[in-house]
Amino acid sequence: MTLRVVVVGGGIAGLAAAHRLRTLRPELDVVVLDQRDRLGGKLSTGTLADGLVERGAESFLVGDPAGGPSAALRLAEEVGLAAAVVHPTPARAAVALDGGLRDLPSGTLMGIPFKAPDSAPDVPSGSPLLPPGGDVTVGALVRPRRGDAVVDHFVDPLLGGVYAGRADRLSLRMALPALAAAAERAHTLTDALAEAVAASRRTPGAPMFGTIEGGMSRLVDAVAATLPDVRSGVTVRAVHRHGGGWRLTLGSTRDAETLDADGLVLAVPAAPAARLLAGVEGVEPVQLEYASVALVALALPATKLPDLSGFLVPATEGFAVKAVTFFDRKWAHLRRPGVTVLRASVGRFGDEEQLQRTDGALVELVRREVARIIGVDALPDELDRGVFRWGGALPQYQPHHRDRVSTLREGLDAHPAIAVAGAAYDGVGIPACVTSGRTAAEAVLAKLEG
Ligand SMILES: Cc1cc2nc3c(=O)[nH]c(=O)nc-3n(C[C@H](O)[C@H](O)[C@H](O)COP(=O)(O)OP(=O)(O)OC[C@H]3O[C@@H](n4cnc5c(N)ncnc54)[C@H](O)[C@@H]3O)c2cc1C
To answer: Which ligand 1 atom sits closest to the C-alpha of 432?
Structure first.
C-alpha cells in the first residue's frame, strides 16, 4: 500500500520537506496543502513598472557556516536553478546616523566589534560567559561589554534588518548561534567573537548572498513542479490521530472534508501550528510573538541615489523606515534603463501602529523619510509603487526558544509520524527553513519505516 505524507504549509520549509520526501522515497504519496491561493509563503515575486520586484524575501545566504553550499543553494541546484543563482554587486550598505549616511563598521560580527573599546577593556569574568545550553538576549551579552552605542547604532539595526526585532529581546542562541556556542567556553566577548569567527567554514571572499534571476517565486515554482500533489487554497482546520496515522479536517466549517495520512509535517507559523496541535495529546506548542512589516517599493524615473546597496536606520534615529534597499544598485540583473527601484521596510517589533496607515500614507511617509535621510528635498514622482504588508511576519525568538522547541519535539515523538518545520522553530533565514523542512521529512520517514 502506498504511504501518504501530508505537508501542511507550502512556504519554503513545507516545499523543502515535500521535495526531500519525494527525493528519498519517490513512491510516497506526498500532498502539500496551503491555505493561500499561491505557494511560497513569504517568498513572492511581483511586478513593478513592468519589471520584477520581490514582495517578500529577496535573497538567501549561499554558504553554510559549516562549509559548502547552504541548504537553500543546494535546493536551487537540485531543482535545476544552479545557473539562475546571481549575487549582489559589491556596493556597500550604510547606516543612517546623526543626520547622515555612515559606513557600517568593518571588523564586526553582526555589528559587534571584535575588539573591546579602550575605554572598557575586557575583564575576564572567572567563568565562561554562558553556562552550557544557557541563553540570554543579544543586548544582555553585548551592552555591558561594548556599550549602548554599539548596540543601538549597529547591532540593533542589523538584527532589525533580519528579524524586525530588537537586540534586547532576541535570543543570542537563535540570532548568533556560533557566538552562543563560543560563549560557553570563552571568558571574554573578544575571545568568544574570535572563536565564533574561526568556527565559520565559509570560503573567504566568496559571495555571501544570492538570489534567483527571475525572482524567488521561480524557486517556489521549480520545487513545486517536482511534487505530485500540491493544493493551494486549502486550509487545514484540525488534525487528530486516526488509526495508526492522522486525519486532517480541511476546508470551511460548513463543507469540511477529511484527508487521512500516515505521516504529517506541519510547516506553518506558530499560531496555526498551536491550533492544529491542540488536537494532539500531550504536546506543548511553541508560543511565539511575531513582528509585522510593510515593504514599500517605489519605481522612480532614473534618479541619482547614493552609491550604496542601501541603508539601515537605527530605531534611535526616530524614523519609521528601518531599512532601504536600492534594488538596481544591489542587483545588476535588475538594472533597467530609465527606472530606479528602491524598497523600504517599515515596522519594528513593538511599533506596529506605524502599519495602521493607509497604503497612500505609508508611501508618503517613506518618500519623506528617504528624501530626508539621503539629503534631497524630495524624491521624483514615482512611475509605479507597491505596498506589501506582512502581518505576523517574523518570529521573535526569546531566550531559551530552543529548549521550548525541544520539548515540543519530544512530545511529538510519542505519536505516529509527525514533525514540525519552518521559521517558527529553527531560524528565520531561507536556508534554515529549508534545513528545517528537510530534517522534518527525514524524521517522518524514519518513524514510518521504523
Ligand atoms: C518581508 C520579509 C522579507 C524577508 N526577507 C528575507 C530574505 O531576504 N532572506 C531570507 O533568508 N529570509 C527572509 N525572510 C524570512 C523568510 O522569508 C521566512 O522566514 C521564510 O520564508 C519562512 O518560511 P516558512 O515555510 O517557515 O513559513 P511561511 O513562508 O510563513 O509559510 C507557511 C505557509 O503555511 C500556510 N498556512 C498557514 N496556516 C495554514 C493552515 N492552517 N492550512 C494550510 N496552510 C497554512 C501559509 O499560507 C504559508 O504559505 C523575510 C521574511 C519577510 C516577511
So the answer is: 11
Question: What is residue 171's predicted lDDT score, i.e. its pLDDT?
Answer: 97
pLDDT tens digits for range 200-238: 887 777 899 999 999 999 999 999 999 999 999 999 999
Q: For the residues 269-280, what does the mean pLDDT come to?
A: 96
Using the mean position of ligand 1's atoms as its centre, give its distance from the Cα of residue 132 in Å: 31
Q: Which residues make Cβ contacts (< 8 Å) with residue 200, sequence separation at least 6? A: 65, 178
Q: Could you tell me the distance, in angstroms and rounded to a whole number, from the CA of residue 287 to the centre of ligand 1?
A: 17
Give the position of cell 523542512: 437
Cα–Cα distance, 294 to 347 (Å, whole number): 6
User: Which residue lies with its CA nearest to atom 44 of ligand 1?
Assistant: 34
Angstrom CA distances, 399 to 19, 112, 382, stand at 32, 19, 43
- Domains of the chain, CATH where assigned: 4-86+210-287+397-449 (3.50.50.60), 93-199 (1.10.3110.10), 290-396 (3.90.660.20)
Which atom of ligand 1 is nearest the CA belonging to 430?
11
Looking from the CA of residue 55, the nearest atom of ligand 1 is: 1
**pLDDT beyond 90 at 117:** no
